[in-house]
Design a protein that fits this description.
Cofactor: Mn(2+)
Number of strands: 10
Order of helices and strands: EHEEEHEHEHEHEHEHEH
Helix content: 25-40%
CATH topology: Arginase, Chain A
Catalytic activity: agmatine + H2O = urea + putrescine
Bound molecules: manganese (II) ion
Function: Catalyzes the formation of putrescine from agmatine.
GO molecular function: agmatinase activity; metal ion binding
Shape: globular
Number of domains: 1
Oligomer: single chain
Structural class: alpha/beta
CATH class: Alpha Beta
Distance between the termini: 24 Å
EC number: 3.5.3.11
Largest sheet: 8 strands, parallel
Strand content: 15-25%
């Protein structure tokens, strides 16, 4: 948790050395201790930073360069291994501090449960909040094998906090029958299988709203992002996910924070997942930090 001085270690390309002068803060949440399948996403944030050196600084999609956005890389939050509740509390306090300073939080996971305390913190500041969630999985379970702190529960938790009608999920292709039924009964929006076309329909209805965007890298097909814990066939292409980021950037919603989670380098033998993730982060910075 480094706010006051430039960090000389592994940082995202072109990070600004000064917290106070920055518009956005990149931070890692290296937690993977509640995953139901393969662990390893605790190493995601560091790998995304390392491969970011291979990025161009210019986005031909947005005609913008990284120099035009000031973002500070705060490093990884030093989370206590194995203690999910304390980790979540630390993440919430950390994000509170970023929001108090008036900056845009851009978090890197880590398993998807890390998004729950972030969204909670963002909701405290922006009561008109809506969530845009891109994922292969519903993440709407109440618990997993009796454990409510699980990476399959964060969307259920935020839906119960802010109201299910304020949560919009895209690209969903995996979950229990009961999760889909719960969403339907409670008026929560779920776009199955696709992201871009349904997103284009939803965005005008969210015009003027504060929106937090949480992206699970496994919304991508395993062919595009094999380096993740819970792969699921039948996903979207990286081209569609980039177009979705740009559609949000060009819409009238006010993006107030975002995260990208579940990159797990140990399964990422070609490094294509980390490289894709770092490009997604560049486009999120250039498109959403204004
Ligand atoms: Mn997922």
């Amino acid at each position: 948790m480094r706010f006051d001085e430039a960090y000389s270690g592994n940082v995202f390309i072109k990070s600004h050395p000064n917290f106070e002068e920055s518009q956005a803060v990149i931070y890692g949440m290296p937690m993977d201790w509640t995953v139901s399948y393969r662990p390893g996403s605790r190493f995601g944030p560091a790998r995304i930073r390392e491969v970011s050196i291979g990025l161009e600084e210019y986005s031909p999609y947005l005609d913008r360069e990284l120099d035009e956005v000031k973002y500070f890389d705060a490093g990884d939050i030093p989370l206590p291994f194995g203690n999910a509740q304390r980790s979540l509390d630390m993440i919430e306090q950390f994000v509170d501090r970023i929001l108090e300073a008036g900056k845009f939080p851009l978090g890197l996971g880590g398993e998807h449960l890390v998004s729950w305390p972030v969204m909670k913190a963002v909701y405290k500041k922006y009561p008109d909040l809506a969530i845009i969630h891109m994922d292969a999985h519903t993440d709407l379970r109440e618990h997993y094998e009796g454990e409510p702190l699980s990476h399959s529960t964060p969307i259920r938790k935020i839906a119960e906090l802010i109201g299910p009608k304020n949560v919009y999920s895209f690209g969903i292709r995996s979950g229990m029958k009961e999760e889909f039924e719960w969403a339907k009964e409670n008026g929560m929006y779920i776009a199955k299988f696709d992201v871009l076309e349904p997103l284009k329909e939803v965005l005008p209805t969210l015009a003027g709203r504060s929106v937090y965007v949480t992206i699970d890298i496994d919304v991508l097909d395993p062919a595009h992002a094999p380096g993740t814990g819970t792969v699921d066939a039948g996903g979207i292409t990286s081209k569609e996910l980039l177009a979705a980021i740009h559609a949000i950037a060009r819409s009238d919603v006010r993006v107030v924070g975002a995260d990208l989670v579940e990159v797990a380098p140990v399964y990422d033998h070609s490094e294509q997942t980390a490289n894709t993730a770092s490009k997604l982060v560049r486009e999120m910075l250039l498109g959403w930090v204004k």
